[in-house]
User: Fold these one by one.
Assistant:
Number 1:
Amino acid sequence: MMHMTLYWGIKVTLLFDSWKTDSCFSYLLSLLACFLFSAFYQYLEDRRIRFKAIAVSNPPQQPAPVNAPLLTPKRRASSAKFATALLFGINSAIGYLLMLAIMSFNGGVFLAIVLGLTVGYVLFRSGDEEVVVVDNTCACA
């Protein structure tokens, strides 16, 4: 029977029927896997943001703008854009798997994932905050 409230116990089924814990050792290994997987999620998010910055900083030469509002010039694909899209897909899949693991409603799994996301953010993404200077003071711009 699936739990519908937060519970604290060592018997948990994570993501697959074959991933069941029945001892303290297997439970702790599962918590460690959840912690590492969520920290890895933050690492991949950092890589994706850096690839996106590379793709934006080196835009391909575009032809003169077209006056028709619905026509946009074709953009060439770059390896940085492809890497960004690939990392976005992988990161989305990992995010959904982490969400499904939390939906086991086990308190230890919840804490391991939140702690892993926090530690991963501190290790890999805490330097992401950059000051953005806006020339236009209008809030709607």
Number 2:
Amino acid sequence: MDSVTVLAPAKLNLTLDITGIAPNGYHTLDMLMQTVNLYERVTLRKSPYLRLRLPGSNVPANEHNTAIKAALAFFDATGLLAGVDITVRKAVPVRAGMAGGSADAAAVLVGLNALYGAGMTVPELCEIGLKVGADVPFSILGGTARVQGIGDVLTPMPSCPRCWFTVCMPKGGISTPQAYARYDELGTDVHPDNDLAQRALEQGDLKALCAQMSNALEFSSQSPANGPIEEILRRSGALAALMTGSGAAVFGVFRDEKTAQSAKAELQKHYPRSWVLHPVPRGAHVLPARPAGKKK
């Protein structure tokens, strides 16, 4: 094959706790994470060069981009003397805490593995991905998982109970390094009980899961929109409302799609970028090849 197209989903943090500092200086975490049906679409074509295009996006297409970093890490790990032409069509908001950049990196790793027939396993791809970013291994695995350490310890969980997420991205975004720096300065009293949250997942109990949903970074994000968005979500019937990752996106959990859509309509009076999403069971994956001669 000369090209592949990969879909890579965004993620939400159902919980996020900070448990310490690793020897390398990174914060250690304990989180429940979930992929959702908002996708980055990444096309990779064989090329003697390494090139990245992001049509319609303001994200810089340079050596600091996670897609380029992932490609370089892949070629370094495999020893392949090759290149790739990468086109990323972004849908996940930037600086939202939804792993858009990590999804791009995951898509590149999964796509290159297929494009060049490298035969790398998922754990091997995750090991490469961790060098690019802490959320990349989960973006490869996807589904519902408990993620610990610096993002390197992934435990697949039973599927999230049937629900819908109303997700809202306020104007502006949050810098992840700055959020963690403020956490180090300010601390928090918020520490979700991930063992109880895991038990709720295992029992398929959405109400019990929502009771444990919280984010240790929410206060240190200092996003002025967190409170107002969460208030609208709760007033609209959300079982839980919280920030995802280091922000700035906030989401609410709903039992039915109709209520979730009503919450979205209410949010869009003030915050145009809102979505109703649902859990999906996998991470970055190659789309089936289109049969020859078939029109789009």
Number 3:
Amino acid sequence: MLEINELRKRFTGGPDAPGGKVALDGISFAVRPGEMFGFVGANGAGKTTTMRIVMGVLQADSGSVSWRGEPLGYDDRQRFGYMPEERGLYQKMRVADQIEYFGRLHGLSVQAAKKATDDLLERLGLTERRRDAVQALSLGNQQRVQLAVALVHEPEVLILDEPFSGLDPIAVDALAEALQERCRGGVPVIFSSHQLELVERLCDSVGIVSAGRMVATGTVADLRAAEGNALRVVVREPAPGWADGLPGTVTVQGDRHTLRTTDGDDQEILRRASKAGRVEHFGVEQPTLTEIFKEAVA
């Protein structure tokens, strides 16, 4: 298990910010073997800072990171796979040569690096681009190469900062499949993303961070249960003021009025809606991760 406990980090300020900026204020979470953990939050919330501390790029002011019950050290990090938000590829280097090079940096033999590279090129759909320079690739294919670099040494943990940013649906599916394959092999995977629907689809657990604090964490099912179910009613061309006095909020799109509420008498709401117009939908729904996120950071 990878455990992050009470991480705190303050960046010293300049003339315009003499007190500095608190980047992390007690971040804690854990990721189990074979678990995919989605790390979500607004820009500047603390996601990248947390990942950089885990990888040893930054040093925390206080708190700890442990792996398999022991403090995380340099040798452990050598066995991790890291994909930074700022991509670190050599643009004029050929794709296959680049992946092999990073494999050698991680201590693989020439033969092992070549075999791992061939396997990853095939798995990520890059075999036909193996001799191309990275700068000749689309953004999606460059992302695949960056993922191959993170995977080439068979890492024990994967930490990926915005790996799906800017990708088309085909590239998203290719990267997601590669990550799920690693999870099935017992590798813990942490990735940050602003694409909450993707996080909801892929992740076993989610952590929502806001202003350096973890404001919600758990499985998607647990977070949904904590929020409670909501009644959603969609009425077409209703009479004006039909929902006056009813609990909840009403949104309007064209001639459709949607009422969402967690309170009130369902039968009374149905009666009012039926009397006001044509009811297109009436049912209880669980909140989406997007709705949970908005509520958690409000």
Number 4:
Amino acid sequence: MKKPTILLIEDDELDIISVERSLKKIGSEYVLHTAYNGIEALKVLRDTNLGLIPDVILLDINMPRMNGIEFLKEIREDKKLKNLKVFIMTTSSEGDDRFEAEKLGISGYIIKPLNYTDNSKRPDSMDAFVQFHLRKILLDENI
């Protein structure tokens, strides 16, 4: 049975660690690939030698070189990649970012915790996302 594949596109090492911690709680096997910006992610997705078509993409909006919205526009215009499930992860609660991402057909929007030293004031939305949404997606993919 093929293990589900996740592509994490994130430029912040602390956020990568946070996602990895949350994913470990999923209780299911998966393969995680990481890219640090949209340009790197496109190279990985378009590399025919790798043949990577992830089950889910977790995408940060604010990144250098190519941000999440620019990346989304690129994959939505690519006939091999346009139907990928993409979840936006961001600290931004800007309505414009959300509206633009929704226009580009995202599967969901996750607000990252803003304060890593005191998460007690706000629940970790990544943990909630992994436990309630990503687990279902990955398990459904394997049925």
